[in-house]
Design brief:
It is built from 5 helices and 17 strands. With 297 residues, it is α+β, with helices and mostly antiparallel strands. It has 2 domains: 117 residues, 2,3-Dihydroxybiphenyl 1,2-Dioxygenase, domain 1 (Roll), CATH 3.10.180; 140 residues, 2,3-Dihydroxybiphenyl 1,2-Dioxygenase, domain 1 (Roll). The protein is globular, with a radius of gyration of 18 Å. The relative contact order is 0.16. The chain binds 3-methylcatechol and fe (iii) ion.
Length: 297
């Protein structure tokens, strides 16, 4: 069975491209890359050509998630797997693969209607070392864990879990609130040592709730928190530590109105299920960050 190995890239649509370029470089620390295409620009985190594509399309929402498979064999196997399961997909043209700077790409939708791409062979630019948009103590932690993780909208969590299992991910409920018929849970799916690459099961007002990016130096979380506060960027969830991945992180709003989670210090996936009643400490909601109630004051 072929399986995806990481969230390799994501595309987002934005209303205010100028605000995004400033925010992405001067607040988050991404490197801006512009290939002279009038409708888009790219954000880098490592040697890959890009990790995020910003499309100037006005949507202020997720455009697509790009999941990587190891190579051409796995890419062929994945197509058989999807066909056997009756999942509709489309093989991208040469031009569509080149547009994403990958060797081959498939396009499909997940059960929540989120556009999904499966690819292999990203363009890696070892002649262009990552240069952060503003000073950083360390670097973004991508490696075998990929870009990071993202919480997306799914109306049917069981259908979504089956879909991501078909892509080769594993996982299930890691946060469970309440008991019996009243119980609600959040589902976390992994495909590498990152505890989760996609998660769902909370109400979200658009396709995406947040994307987590990880740094390898705790001081960058502290410095970014100060920078966010000083720049009057809204903090959505205060610094704290998650019970499942042990990430020390905080959340802040981007110019599109969904959040980035900026984290450090995660433990590897446990590869055995366990559940948690909440976080270890901190992580106070400053807004209705998960559509689960107003600010905790
Ligand atoms: C996470 O990364 C997260 O965003 C939430 C809501 C819970 C646990 C881990
Ligand atoms: Fe998260």
């Amino acid at each position: 069975m072929a399986h995806v190995t990481e969230l390799g890239y994501m595309g987002i649509g934005v209303k205010d491209l100028a605000a995004w370029k400033d925010f992405a470089t001067n607040i988050v620390g991404f490197e801006l890359a512009d290939d002279g295409e009038p409708d888009r620009c790219y954000l880098r985190m490592d040697y890959l050509h890009h990790r995020i594509v910003i499309h100037n399309d006005g949507s202020d929402d997720l455009a697509y998630l790009g999941f990587r498979v190891a190579g051409a064999e796995e890419f062929a196997e994945m197509q058989r797997q999807l066909s056997d399961a009756g999942i509709k997909f489309r093989l991208g043209s040469t031009e569509e693969a080149e547009e994403r700077r990958v060797l081959e790409v498939l396009k499909l939708d997940d059960p929540g209607g989120n556009p999904i791409e499966i690819f292999h062979g990203p363009l890696v630019q070892f002649g262009k070392p990552f240069h952060p948009g503003r000073a950083m103590h360390g670097r973004f932690k991508t490696g075998t864990g990929g870009l990071g993780h993202t919480i997306i909208r799914e109306r049917n969590a069981e259908a979504a879990q089956r879909f991501y299992q078909l892509l080769g991910m594993r996982g299930g409920v890691e946060y469970k609130f309440g008991r019996g018929k009243q119980a609600t849970g959040i589902v976390f799916m992994h495909c590498n040592d990152r505890d989760h690459t996609v998660a769902f099961g909370i109400p979200v007002d658009r396709r995406i709730n947040h994307t987590m990016i990880e740094v390898d130096n705790l001081d960058d979380v502290g410095m970014t928190y100060d920078l966010v506060c000083k720049s009057k960027v809204p903090v959505t969830i205060t610094p704290g530590k998650h019970s499942n991945d042990h990430m020390f992180s905080f959340y802040f709003l981007n110019p599109s109105g969904w959040s980035f989670e900026y984290g450090w210090g995660a433990r590897p996936a446990t590869y055995q299920s366990e559940y948690h009643p909440g976080d270890m400490y901190g992580h106070q909601f400053q807004t209705d960050a998960f559509g689960m109630g107003g600010p905790k004051k």
